Queue: 2 jobs
Job 1
Amino acid sequence: MSIIQQLSNATLNDNWRTINIDLLDPESSSNFDRSTLHPALAPVSEGEIKSLGGQVRQLLRGGDAEGALRGALEGAPYGGDDAVKELHLQTVTEVLQSIKASEMTPMLQRIHQSEGGNEALDVLMKYLYKGMASSTRSSRASALSPQATGFSQFGGRPAAANESSGAAMSVFLSWHEKVVEVAGMGCIGRTMTDWRKV
Amino acid sequence: MASPEVHHLFYHPIADHSFSADRETLAVARDTSVELYGRSGSGFKIKDELKGHDKTVTSVDIAPNSGRIVTCSQDRNALVWEPSPTGYKPTLVLLRINRAATFVRWSPSETKFAVGSGARVIAVCYFEEENDWWVSKHIKKPIRSTITTVAWHPNSVLLAAGSTDAHARVFSSFIKGVDARPDPGVWGERLPFNTVCGEYLNNSAGWVHAVSFSPSGDALAFAAHDSSITVVYPSGPDQPPKAVVSVSTPLLPFMSLIWNGEAEIIAAGYDCEAFKFQGSEGGWQLTGSVGSPGKAHQNTISTIRIYEGSAEAVQKFSSSGVDGRVVIWDA
């Protein structure tokens, strides 16, 4: 095979346009460590987050739902791994589910006006989005079952597991509405921009 | 309070606008050209069109004293338009960047201008007499992403820049032979080119959309995509700042901001309205919106600038936005 033929074969086979040239450029922005862009987060262990969860639940049992919510939000494990974050999401979800609809707005207003309240509601909004994302994920996973045809299809009526995630979803949605009323749209923006993920 | 003066120029986004010092000429960046409007009665009439860029013009600035216009574009070029009896004459400035130019501003001395870019550099451009052309020098380190905005310190040496890496930075753009050696101040003592005098990040770290030095130059404000404004009070070279005050608002993000004295900031953006903040080192607060709640703008405000008065005391300011309108407000 001649050189020209080889080259033209290569051109035909490889789509040069799809080559990510940034990877070949040492100066390129895709070649630096993104973690250097912001200060490092303190790591959080599973034990720590479990004991925090225990304290929060104790406050909840003692009837101090507001204290429980604040405690859970202030202890958000930014530096934890996925398992730790999942554990804390469960804690926050429990607290949110235990608060009556009529108490939501006054409680949010009290938190918002207190020291560090703005930040606390930003964290709450992050949990609402995380909660909504994970409850849709779990309902998808159970509703989609591989069929004999090889295609995934939505099953009939979702199973019992979905009932609970649906209930959680409605709790998140009603909290979402109330948080936006108190903390405004800025709160949603910050959930998206913030590099400290819950 | 008089209602704002609304000029609906066309149905197309205005990337940037600039008034001449006598406020008779208004330059707006529209698509790939810059349109010049002249005052006629209570409105504005188009009088000239500056065509020279072949991609979207991202920014335009009229130097108040010389009347020169600088423009920059996604075509990676900057043009300096020299006024002459037969119209504006463009001069191409080689920026040596491989991504779009995003933002341009003349220094207060009008001997330099700074161009932000997607190539993670700021091109500081100055005129070299012996060669009879504009030269650009790059500020590179430690910029990690696109520069969205730049703003000059009153001394024409320090330059603030905001970036999509969520940092607002202060650099020295000192050019030997062009600039007078600046007096030592809170930002530093010796200031060779590309000295990083400050690097700031707020808690939630949104893209930085706007930066501005206070009228004295001793404080820096920036607005980010997390709907916040942050004010930094430096204490001296190589020392942590005296105070960094961040205000998270319930509003949508701000795209542009100006100072009105040392204790007030006016910011506008995605809420299609301008808002006032008041404060000092001890703390800043959102105090309310400017003007009547009537919608002068129908879409995002991209740029606000001082129209009448100065940064020490703004009498009127102008805004332009995605709705193709230029609005003049009482501050």
Job 2
Amino acid sequence: MQHRNPIKRRHHQLTEPLVMIMGTIDLKVGLGTLRIYGLMDSPERKFLEISMVSVNGPCSDESCQIIRKVVARLSKPADLSRYITLAVSGITVYLEREVFDSIDRGRSNVRAKVMRSGKVVVSGISIIT
Amino acid sequence: MFVPESSDLFVEKDGQKYYFCSQACMDKFLSPEAESGKIKRKLVVAWVFTIPIMIVQYGFPGILFHNLIELLLSIPVMAYSGSLFYKGAYHSIKMHTGNMDLLVSMGTLTAFFFSAYLTFFTFYGSSVYFDAAAFIITLILTGNYIETVTKERANSSARKLETLLPDVAHKLAGDGSETEIKPDDIEVGDIILVRPGEIVSCDGKVVEGKSEVDQSVITGEQDPVLRGEGDMVVSGTRNLNGILKIRAEKPGKNSTINEVYRLIQSASMGRVKVQRIADVFSSIFIPVVLAVAFSSSLFWYFYLVSTGFIYPWEIAILVFVSVVVIACPCAIGLAGPITLLISSNISSQNGIIVKNSGSFDRLAKATTIVFDKTGTLTMPDPVVENVLPEEGISYEDIVTMAASLEKYSDHPIAKAIVSLSQDKKIKLKTANEIKEIPGLGIMGNVEGKKIQVSRSTKAGITGITISVDGKDMGHILLSYRIRDSAFAAISSLKSMGKKVSMVTGDSEDQAKRIAQTLGIEDVHWGAMPADKSEIIRQYQESGEYVVFVGDGINDSVALETADVGISMGSGLDIARESGDIILLNNDLNHVVYSVIIGAKTISKVKQNIGWAIGYNSVLLPVAAGALVPLTGLYIYSLLPILAALAMGMSSTSVVLNSLRLNGKIRRSLSPYGWNAASKPNKTQASPAH
């Protein structure tokens, strides 16, 4: 296969909503996806923030280091400069850049489940630094 | 186990903060040799007292004061040899966490104090378990010691780098006088004298002298390279046969050798995707083990009471001791880091520097390898292929006009033309009003004529056009020599089922010519740096896992976009290079090796994690009494000791299994030209056809 000058240029769409059915939202995040359950169950749940925090890492002999972990909550971050914002049907999802890159580079299919209590459980993501 | 960020057990080294779960872990990190010596001393004491305990217990069970003799013999083992575990357990409790030391301490102290109670407060002849307490400590210490020794072996090439720098460097003062200083005291700009046979103590530029330099320790390339005035030399390399004076540019911890060492060490801190399983497992491990230990112990106590068994307490205690001793969280934690460390060591011995060990995951999945052309598949500098003068103009005239201007430029094309004039012994003329326009060419006056040397726009010509007063006088055709290793590398990648593509900013003709010569069908031309990234993105969107091989500084965007970026490093500025992997010797066969090493590493990490989880999943139920229906309660007379033996060897077996990676990688790479003596193929060039 041979290509003339850089193959057709098009703006790379980083994120796009795919499906919104039965209270779930599917988002394309780079090369990965993010499926959110339960965010639309309640009208006051309009924001979802997914970010990284440093937590205690597993100790493997001399390497008992702090590792990065994903946390999510139903809120709007104070400092938006570190986040990529995705707005879908009145709901806004804030992904910290590192979270975005990890989903993208890891091609992860990440699930975020919003529980009735308001707690958000994120699964399927590996942090790529 | 988990380490809180508020822990006071941390050290700061090279700007990075390292946390530890215990004082023992921190001591091991700060001074592995001292820690290894300490374990050895404790181990000797443990064996010296444990052997008599075993003799008394099993050889002379009926002798007078049998229990008391065992108690006295076990005190040095518990108090001195076991102190390592108690310290760890103390820190663990202080930080409200759990670790292996806590489990070992709980097991041995329970056995010891229960036996002491029986010794002093029960009738003569009741069974005591001092042998189990002492033997558990001795066997686990033995396992720790073997693990420490094998880990040192795993890290051997990095250690070699650390000890490579000379003790003294010869600093030259302005008046030529020489003083001996420590390499750490070298400052930027110092002139350092390196005599034949000496190791270069810092990165720097040669200001005087010429010599062959053995760079194998950095690049893996066994053949020495000639270094003269203006060339860079790097720390750790050996000056072979001439005297060199170098101006220090990157001394001390900024030097190449330190950077390579740092990267190897940090490899074990990297995390591959599969370690997520280990993280989850180890985060719940200690509470689960303690729950199993207490519940199984209580179960057996009440069960045996209900059956009228006369020693229910003894069995319950032995069940508890067996469960806490057999559990091995370290094997799970070690599975990933030790493999990544060994893999990084193997790679670095051959000039493959892994900057991001997390990239092994993606390397193992690679489906498409995209090569940049200039400087990657080809040598970075062009050579003159032909000179085409217009009618009535001579070969010498064209070269004279072009070289008379180009001698004022540092551009690679200019160097190729000046080099041609030197080879042909053509005398150059004086030029003035020189003006160089980046990307277009150079112009100036030579003997009153306005001469312009610019990129050729004529179809079918890759090179430059020389014009005088606006009229074309001729063309100089240029080509880039293809690296010899490119042929073998592309053929190997294809034979492995990988798709190979080439991307270049060059013209269609040039791109197709190189691609055809190398047997690459998928080729992109006219691509600017940003376009390369876009091309990679499109491959990724079609489901490919892309490895991009390019220039570490100019192709940084593409290197970052790709799933794995492999940069052809200059061997001089690792910190500046982008990408996940850096090839120090520019041998393209190392791209093939990197892909194979990535796949083998991930496979070994999975194997280790599977083994460690399997070990604990199978043996915990055994320790809790799963085999009692088959063997009877008699099994508990041996189980605590067998548990210690299994636990002591479990981490060691993970390290030993990881060490097998070395042979596995060598066997896998040998069909692709990997030399068993770590001698990579020579990197030479041949002209493109």
